[in-house]
Each structure stands twice: as structure tokens, then as C-alpha cells.
Amino acid sequence: MDLEVLLAALSDLPIGQVRFLERIDSTNSEARRWIEKGAPDLALVVADEQTAGRGRQGRKWFTPPGAALAFSLVLRQAMVPSNDPDGQIIPALSMRLTALGALAVCQAIRKRYNLLTEIKWPNDVLLQRRKLAGVLVEAQWQGDQLQAAILGIGINIAPDSVPVAGGLLYPATCLQKALRRPVDRIALLHDVLDEILSWRNKINEPDFLNAWEALLAFKGEWMIVYENDPAGSASRQGIVLGLDDQGRLRLKDRSGEEFRLLTGELRLRPVAS
Ligand code: BTN
Questions:
Q1: 74: Cβ–Cβ under 8 A, 6 or more apart, which residues?
Q2: Distance 253 CA to ligand 1 centre (A)
Q3: DSSP-derived pairing of the beta strands 18-24 and 44-54
Q4: CA torsion angle for 62, 166, 159, 2 (degrees, to 10)?
Q5: Which single residue of 31, 95, 171, 219 has CA 20 to 30 Å from 154?
Q6: pLDDT digit string (tens) for 124-174?
Q7: Which of 248, 141, 151 is nearest to 192 (CA)?
Q8: Which atom of ligand 1 lies nearest, measured to the CA of 27?
């Protein structure tokens, strides 16, 4: 992978500017630094290797050289609020952008490889019930003004990108294992970006919610949901019903009562039988 090849492959997409790094701490961190220096809307950071890749809830994201697809896209437009006095809008926007990333990955993989993947609410892409990709949306603030959102996506491509099972909260897999052939990372990047671009202005429309819900994993299954880290918070059990019109996960507990999850800091686990 190099910048010239990337630019040529993405030339038909209205991407802002592209930075390619052989090695970086985190593409989300690089995007953050770039925003401070004026990165335009749809500025793209791609790295071959991340030395301090971030996942959600402070977890690490493993990106060894040449084995994964790791990139961050700067989204400046359509940042509806300029501030968020009630603390309601940003979490909802962040959830929709997270879903935008996950939906784009699923649809690109479906179109390019005819492989079915699912979204483990809110941000994981699963292939055969194993984690294939993750999405990390971060907000960039200037004082109390939202400057931009950073949509970071990591996709496991080759076996080296799959972390060893011991330290994982969820079993992982990679695309090449499922396809049994090499994967062109740049072609996949192109298709994921294409999907993001086609959905980005529709994230508040019913079509977007419907497409997201159609890919929701564990529908009709009993799950344990944790409000924070599974190690340290109370859990509740519910059968997954789907999404509501805000993109919240709808579940029903054993007494038949429906409850909804809004925050992105939740974990899902199948209920042991
Ligand atoms: C998760 O599943 O917890 C989210 C993982 C997100 C990883 C991507 S890789 C590109 C971007 N840069 C980062 O440091 N993280 C995201």
C-alpha cells in the first residue's frame, strides 16, 4: 500500500484529502491532529500499521503491518448541533455514525465478496458470529463546539490481524479465512467509503434504520446486556427485538416488559443455556 496507489484507487470518490502512513499510533489520533490543523470534510487517514490503535471503552485495537485495514474519515458537514447543552444529541449522533460505519462495512463485504455479515449492536461487524471489524466514532471539540466527528474503522483482513483468543471479549476472525484467498485491502476500502458516502446524508431517514436493523445480529435471541464494562456493572437479560426509531436497541425481559438501550457503552453476550 502507498499513497499513489491509494489516490489512484479512490480517484472516483469525492474524498477530501488522503494521508497514508506506514506506521502511526492511531489513525483516529492522526485525524484529530489533522483536524486541529484544518483537515477538510472527508479527509481520510489510512495506516498500514497502528502501534496504539484504540477500540471502544479504552480497549486496544490490534493492527500489525500489512494484515488489516485501518482508517479514519473526518466528517465535518451534517454535524447537526454546534453544541449539546442537554447532552442528548451527541450520543445519538455518535450512535448513528457508528452504525453508518458498520452498515458500510457489511454492505461493501456483501457486494464485493457475497459474504453475509451482521452488526452486533452498536458497533461490531460479525462474520459467522465472530468479530470481523470494529467502529470507533470520536468527537473533536473546540471549547463546547463540535468541530468534527472522526469515523474510525478497523477490519481484520489476514490471519495476523486476529488477536490471540485469550485477551478477547469476543472471538474474532478475518476476511481471508472466510474467503480462503488474498483480499485487496484498497479495493475493499474503496467500497466501504463508497457506502459511507451514499448513506452519510441519510442517517436520519427510515431507510437507514431499516438497512441497519436488517443486519442486526441476535434478533430473537436471549442476551445479557451490560451497561458498562461486563466486568464491573449490573446486567440485565432480554430477548433482542430490534431497533426503535432512534436506533436504540429494543429488548424484552422475562416479565414481557420492553426496555431500550441508548448508550453505546453496552455489551451483549449470549445467555448460557
Ligand atoms: C472496537 O471494536 O472497539 C472499535 C475498533 C476501532 C478500530 C479502528 S482502526 C482505525 C481507527 N483507529 C483507531 O485507533 N481505532 C479505529
A1: 16, 31, 34, 35, 39, 40, 41, 42, 43, 44, 148, 149, 150
A2: 32
A3: parallel
A4: 10
A5: 219
A6: 999 999 999 999 999 888 777 788 999 999 999 999 999 876 555 678 999
A7: 151
A8: 12
CA separation for the pair 83, 80 (Å, rounded): 9
Residue 267 to residues 15, 109, 117, 253: CA-CA distances in angstroms?
A: 33, 24, 19, 16
Question: For 105-118, what is each residue's pLDDT tens digit?
Answer: 999 999 999 999 99
User: How many angstroms separate the first and last alpha carbons of the chain?
Assistant: 46
Helix (H, G, I), strand (E, B) or coil at 37: coil
Cβ atoms within 10 Å, residue 144:
9
Q: For residues 219 and 214, what is the distance between their CA atoms, to the nearest angstrom? A: 10
Calpha distance 217→242 (Å, rounded):
9
Return all residues near 110 (Cβ < 8 A) that are at least 6 apart.
Answer: 116, 117
Distance in Å, CA 99 to ligand 1 centroid: 14
Residue with cell 475493499: 188
pLDDT in tens, 225-259: 876 655 556 778 899 999 998 888 999 999 999 99
